[in-house]
Specification:
This protein is of the alpha+beta class and 150 residues long. The chain has 5 helices and 5 strands, in the order αββαββαβαα. The strands form 2 sheets. It has a 3-stranded antiparallel sheet with strand order 1-2-5. Strands 3-4 form a two-stranded antiparallel ribbon. α2 packs antiparallel against α3. It is elongated and about 85 Å long. The protein starts with 9 loop residues before the first helix and ends in a 21-residue tail after the last helix.
């Protein structure tokens, strides 16, 4: 014969609610996980990337350093010009060349210089260009809920 279900008394229900409330309070009082700045700093270690020239299938490894947020912005700013009417123009060639010279540390040709970059053909240039961080993102909309109101 099945046992009858035990119904909670009013006192047991109050005790359970109090226990849950105490548990929630203790969880709310726990200190937040400390912010770790090391998670957001660039590394000095070189990263190995494989470059593939699509037209020929040739491939080779290069070693690159990370580009800091600040340095990327400096290169970006140097690649933008303003005219007298306030219009801007972006020089993507200058941006790509500056990024490559800044980040490519080891390559089959040695040091990446201006004279090297102006001597290569479009196939190698396009392959190297894929290593460069995008200058602008496609996400140009701003979520109004994310804007702080003061």
């Amino acid at each position: 014969m099945p046992r009858p279900k035990k119904t909670a008394t009013a006192q047991e229900a109050m005790d359970a609610a109090e226990t849950q409330e105490t548990k929630e309070k203790m969880e709310a009082e726990l200190p937040p996980t400390p912010f770790n700045i090391a998670n957001y700093q660039i590394s000095n270690d070189l990263q190995t990337r494989t470059v593939v020239i699509e037209e020929t299938g040739d491939e080779f490894d290069v070693k690159m350093k990370q580009l800091s947020w600040s340095r990327r912005n400096q290169i970006l700013a140097q690649s933008i010009t303003w005219d007298g009417d306030g219009n801007t123009a972006f020089n993507s060639d200058a941006y790509v060349r500056s990024c490559l010279k800044e980040t490519l540390m080891e390559a089959p040709w040695g040091r990446t210089t201006e004279s090297f970059l102006i001597s290569i053909d479009a196939r190698l240039g396009a392959a190297l260009e894929r290593l460069v961080p995008k200058a602008f993102t496609d996400d140009t909309t701003v979520d109004s809920s994310a804007v702080k109101k003061e």
